[in-house]
Amino acid sequence: MTEQGTLRVAVIGTGRMGADHVRRINDVISGARVTAVVDVDGERAKSVAGSVDDCTAFTDPAAAMASPDVDAVLIASPGPAHEETLLEAFRHDLPVLCEKPLTPDSASALRVLQAEQRLGHRRVQVGFMRRYDKEYMQLKQLLANGDLGRPLLLHCRHRNASVLPYFTDQMLINDSVVHEMDCTRWLLEQEITAVTVVRPTPSANAPEGLSDPQLVLFETDGGAVVDVEIFATCGFGYQVQAEAVCENGTARIGDAHGLMTNTAGGWGGEIAPDFVARFEEAYDREVQHWVDATRRGEVHGPSTWDGYAAAAVCEAGVRAQAEGRRVEVEMIERPALYG
Ligand SMILES: NC(=O)C1=CN([C@@H]2O[C@H](COP(=O)(O)OP(=O)(O)OC[C@H]3O[C@@H](n4cnc5c(N)ncnc54)[C@H](O)[C@@H]3O)[C@@H](O)[C@H]2O)C=CC1
Ligand SMILES: O=C1[C@@H](O)[C@H](O)[C@@H](O)[C@H](O)[C@H]1O
User: Fold this and answer.
1) Would the pLDDT of 3 be above 80?
2) pLDDT tens string 176-222
3) What residue ranges do the domains of the chain occupy?
4) In the chain, N or C: fewer CB atoms in 10 Å?
């Protein structure tokens, strides 16, 4: 850290999320600044570094992590690149905020989990930003205080206006529904034990080869059932909603009850265009939380264990999707480090 206690961060991957986090660290939150950016696309790294004072561009994550000007790492490269970067960060014992998914499959997530255990202390906060969203935090508090009784069902909707052409059926699970996997575990404080996927005839608006939408069902070890509609090409905007049905009542979030208008014989509100707009405050709170904890020498928030558990559920989900049957989740016991 600098003499003033400012955390010097390397942002690895400067695409949509990485560039947004660079802006957030430098212009929105306090206590940190970006001193290095890394992208395998060197021109992109240079262009992002050029927009920031005293920031060096790298194409190799290991070189940035070896720099004396780096105290912590924010990983925003694509999921398959996370394992190698996380292991390198552990070699330097650097604190990490790693965008979701921790890694795309449970074998690689387990390797990361084991490496962190060998280190002997937690180093990673995983970027499950919904845990920092105001409405999700309210729902979490309500369920935790017990007034509604035991949660029986959780109905979730996850709709994106559109996705990039390379999006696959597996990514509906690994890239999108992974958020509901984490929310389910966090909100209900239960593990997901089995996954089933059913699909209607795909929307005519879905790109060739993408079976969109899909309905993903989780069963939990606390006896709850969770249904997730994932509709990645709904066209009209970005909607993330959740309704908990409990023994003594229900609670619902994500209706965007902000500005409501009455015009031309109708009434209505706005729908966010994308996740960057819908979860802007949550991303800000998430990164501020990470910087504050790191400056105190602490690690909080979604852990490597949470990343591993989500990866294990994803793996069951991808198999359930491919094989058209209910698949049980296979997970190791929770290690003491994450107790
Ligand atoms: N929390 C959230 O709501 C969201 C999280 N994400 C996550 O953020 C991460 C990045 O996603 P996007 O920004 O949408 O992707 P993107 O494709 O826009 O950007 C990724 C960047 O990483 C670079 N890159 C690829 N391999 C690399 C490596 N080994 N080292 C350094 N840079 C590398 C690419 O050249 C590209 O510039 C993913 O893990 C994704 O799942 C993405 C969207 C929303
Ligand atoms: O993480 C995200 C994207 O990668 C994913 O593609 C979207 O479906 C999610 O809503 C967004 O939060």
Assistant:
1) no
2) 999 999 999 999 999 999 999 999 999 999 999 999 999 999 999 99
3) 7-130+281-303, 132-273+311-338
4) C
Topology at the third CATH level for domain 132-273+311-338: Dihydrodipicolinate Reductase; domain 2 (3.30.360)
Distance 222 CA to ligand 1 centre (A): 34
Residue 147: predicted pLDDT:
93
> How far, in Å, from the CA of 176 to the mean position of ligand 2?
5
Q: What is the reported pLDDT for 2?
A: 83
The CATH code of domain 7-130+281-303 reads 3.40.50.720
- Residue 330, number of CB atoms within 10 A of its CB: 10
User: What is the whole-number distance in angstroms between the Cα of residue 116 and the centre of ligand 2?
Assistant: 26
User: Where do we find the tokens 């591993």?
Assistant: 308
Q: CB within 6 Å of ligand 1 — which residues?
A: 12-18, 38-41, 44, 61, 76-79, 81, 99-100, 127, 129, 175, 275
